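Render this sequence as a predicted structure.
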Amino acid sequence: MLEETVMNTTPANSVFDDAYQRQVADWWNNRRNDAVNLALGDIDKFYHHHCGVGAIDEAVLAEPPETREQSIIAELHRLETAQANYLLDHLGPLTRADRVLDAGSGRGGLSFMANLRFGCRVDGVSISQYQVDFATEQAAERGVADQVHFWFRNMLHTEFEDQSMQAIWNNESTMYVDLDDLFRELSRLLRPGGRYVCITGCYNDILGPKSSEMAYIDGHYHCDFHSRSDYFRAMAANNLTPIKVIDLSLEMIPYWELRAKSSVATGIESHFLSSLRDRTAQYLLIVADRV
């Protein structure tokens, strides 16, 4: 426990590798009042930083004005929760004795869902001190601070022990890092036979280079979406063997269509919809084993 306490107060200078990572951290640190994540998470205190998948309940759009917006927000959160559960479905059999890593854990929603489902220990890492503090407070309020821990650390050098994790996931966080650096670190952490699951947007390089719409999304989120082939090349180079790839692009469109009609719309919705509809962008679930 002493070691954990010391590591949890990691000096910022050892977390960031370059100015870009500092900029990303500052961007997330400044989103304390982000209505998109907070309004949805306030429903059940599971705060997510990812999109949703699945068909929407069209009835919410037909509700009277006094209840319509509240129902749309609840429906968006239901779709986000469905996406989170879909990721958890692919982590493989986990027990209370296992330890798992949420790489890019945000405000902690998926970490808490994993602990609730499997009873396992969960470690989440983020380069946003605000996110770490928010999630740590949530762990205390939920009474699981001894099982779910959040660390102000870089997912590219987490400081955890070799082969200490049975499963690891990235949920819409890989676009902030170099994939070779990421998968090298995650491969080091995973036990042989351990499971890695990634849900991410990417650009479809079969159709050519990154589109102007995807470049606009990059600028909005201060990120850099990788090509689809980048993922499989970097995995192969770092002992991660994909065993399942599912294209969720069409399943994602209803979420963005509904969000465009909500009070939490930011203007980015049309760019996602255009990219997904013309297939220049894809939304993938990739499941890989550590070999």
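Summary. The radius of gyration is 18 Å. The chain is about 45% helix and 20% strand.
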